[in-house]
Amino acid sequence: MIRLAQSGDEGAIDAFLKPHSESSMFLRSNLAQFGVGPNRSDDPRATTFWLIEDGPIRAVFGRSNGGFLMGQSPDNDPADWQAFRDVLHGATVAGITGATPQIKVALDVLDLRDAPFSMMRDEPHYKLDLRDLEPPLVDARLRPAQPGDFDTLFDWVMDYDTSVLGSSATEETRIRARTNAHAHMNSDNHRILEVGGTPVAKTAFNAALPDMVQIGGVYTPPEHRSKGYARTAVALHLLEARKRGVKIAILFASGEPACRAYEAIGFQRIGTYTLAILAEPCVIGSDG
Asked: How far apart (Å, rounded) are the C-alpha atoms in residues 30 and 27?
């Protein structure tokens, strides 16, 4: 049985997700920040949750205001994904993310397997116990974004969206990049690495809990690559987090250079995680 989550379900949802935190960080972070309903916030990350119950909860699914689908279905039963498809009928979807074995089932059940994606990647999934993190031996400064960083951040976000996430360089992408650049300056989860007074890289937590963070949005502009700046930025940001009680860091890596950088910090691979972004939003259940 599937049902829409209601106010008061938050504790039970998080208790179910917590043992699967490594592949549930978006779900848990969105739940902690916005609650269970779509009307709690117009933020694109605010999420509507559905629960599969057979007595206790055995699967949790979500759709963010931005149209991203997420799920944690340890049994990975196609019937549960079908129930999710049924409640999504007519909903607009922009992408899907989660543990790769689950997303492979979801893509088939949701009829998204042959949809046009701007990005579809099964990425190495990593975890680090922050007790094992050593400070980097470099002369660099990690700092929050400042108003004067806007133009730099806009350029970086545009390049990240087009070169890493596969977005087209459209006006819509530019509008999103401007919005994200502003968000960088209004969020404590974003940092810029500066060397000799020059911004050389950025890093962020794209999901955060008091004891666990997920790294995302790491970027080094082409002229500063192959100098270890990305891993330095990540390490310094995680050292900040460790000071305030964060114990575990999670990430999924975009390619071999990123894997080498994160492994050099001490990250250990734990599986594979899928990030899929549709080239154009589509409607679940639409014949078109």
From this structure: 5
Q: Give the integer Cα–Cα distance in Å for 235 and 232.
A: 5
Distances (CA, A) of 75 to 24, 69, 71, 81, 97: 15, 18, 12, 11, 17
* The pLDDT of residue 38 is above 80: no
Determine if residue 220 is left, alpha or beta; phi over 0 gives left, psi from -120 to 50 gives alpha, anything else beta: beta
Task: Give the pLDDT score at 39.
Answer: 63
C-alpha count within 13 angstroms, C-beta hemisphere, residue 242: 16
- 285 residue type, one letter: G
Q: What is the pLDDT of residues 82-103, one digit of tens each?
A: 999 999 999 999 999 999 999 9
User: DSSP assignment, residue 132?
Assistant: G
Cα gap 66→46, rounded to integer Å = 8
Q: Is 162 helix (H, G, I), strand (E, B) or coil?
A: helix
How far apart, in Å, are the Cα atoms of 240 and each of 59, 163, 228? Answer: 34, 29, 19
Least confident piece of the model among 24-28, 131-135, 167-171, 198-202? 167-171
268, two tokens: 């250990």
Mean predicted lDDT score pLDDT of the chain: 93
Tell me: pLDDT of 288 over 60. no
Q: Which two tokens stand for residue 60?
A: 């949790």
Q: How far apart are CA 269 and CA 211, in angstroms?
A: 20
CA–CA separation, 97 vs 181, rounded Å? Answer: 23
DSSP state for residue 45 in the 8-state scheme: T
What are 266's two structure tokens?
């001490």
